[in-house]
Amino acid sequence: MSDGERHRPFEDRRLLVVSTNYAPEVTGIGPYATQLAEHWAQSGARVRALTGMPHYPSWRLDEAYRSVWRTVEVRGGVGVHRRRHYVPSRQSALRRAAFEVSVLATGLLAPPPGRPDAVIAQMPSLAGGVIGARLARRHRVPYIPVVQDLMGAAAAQSGIRGGDRAATLAAAAERYALSGATLVGVIHESFVPRVTALGVDPGRIRTVPNWTHVQGPTADRAATRARLGWDPATSVLLHSGNMGLKQGLEVLVDTARLAPDLRVVLMGDGNQRDALRTRAEGLPNVDFLEPAGAGEFTDVLAAADVLAVTQRASVLDMSVPSKLTSYFVSGRPVVASVADEGGTADEVRRSGAGVLVAPEDPAALLEAVRKLAADPVAAGELGAEGPAYVARHLSREAGLARFDDLMTEALDGRGSTGR
């Protein structure tokens, strides 16, 4: 392949990206869907994105879209088709089901016009996977769902109210969305057994890890700490990202209660933020910060002493937090309070940039943080493994190249098993 063909491999191809989350959302799946779509547009493809209204991670409709029901925007050369849907401010199985049904209804009733040459869908949401599958079948074109989270497993493992009943329905929707796909992408190999159990031939599964979608820190670390009001002599344990049920962030509040000399910072938003604030009442060493802007995000991460990733003990094989890619690039050591046999633990071990502790165990978490604080040289060496791991495996260029290969294989028909 010539350099020109390599850089514009999808010239004039009509590609449809289905993702409930998209820019201007800056955390979670939205940045990946956006960067992928814009990358293909830059490679010469005619790309459209079918998506929802910005709402994540706050689970509140973005103010700029409050009166919008249907719109088409152009972002980075991509035609972005947005459809209004229900946004639940609190999570339960029933509310999540209503969210998915509303996304499904508006997406199927008003899909973007024209016939694509291929459809790729980010899962979750379930609705996005079903919409992508139906559109691909309608037009008889290759279909590639990319599994970022497994919602059936999530409903069973996350502790959401009514989750057991929801798990069966979610698994049925996932089976529909995945079983007839040309190829299936998964962001971590730990997802493969469950995806196979949903009826996907293992020969059609490809691992396409998320990449680091943020730039490394640039600001002076001491200056950032001073701006945030963090005492140079106080250890700061920071969690960034979604505050949902599966994160089990209560362990961080309880860790703060055990250690008045430790500052615990929860930066982000989500449906459990208010409950966590209530739990932290009377604790002066717990701070809640709004999500940092793109220009300062990794500077804030780098200003902390330790970065925390937490999950409920029941979360095993349904999720690998996208925050890890940003954590690694920041150069700070990671403490992962997660199940040892899950995909998140695998990724932390593989990076060499963090330590593992038992989930939902504030004493164990505190002990790990104290050990790092007592040995700043070892902590620095551990943190330095993160950027090195990113450079080897998680660069944007490497991540997007994997998706180029995935799309090329699907379009060439090599991944098809008789659509």
Textual characterization of the structure:
This protein is an alpha/beta fold and 419 residues long. It is 42% helix and 16% strand. It is built from 16 helices and 14 strands. Strands 3-4-2-1-5-6-7-8 form an 8-stranded mixed sheet, with helices on both faces. It has a 6-stranded parallel sheet with strand order 11-10-9-12-13-14, sandwiched between helices. β13, α13 (343-351) and β14 (354-357) form a beta-alpha-beta unit. α5 (151-157) packs antiparallel against α6, α9 crosses α14 (362-374) and α12 (323-330) crosses α15 (376-393). The longest helix is centred in the last third of the chain and has 18 residues, at 376-393. The radius of gyration is 21 Å and the shape is globular. The two termini are 28 Å apart. The model is unreliable at 1-5 and 415-419 (pLDDT under 50).
Keywords:
419 residues; globular; 42% helix; six-stranded parallel sheet; disordered C terminus; 16 helices; alpha/beta; Rossmann fold; 2 domains; single chain; 14 strands; eight-stranded mixed sheet
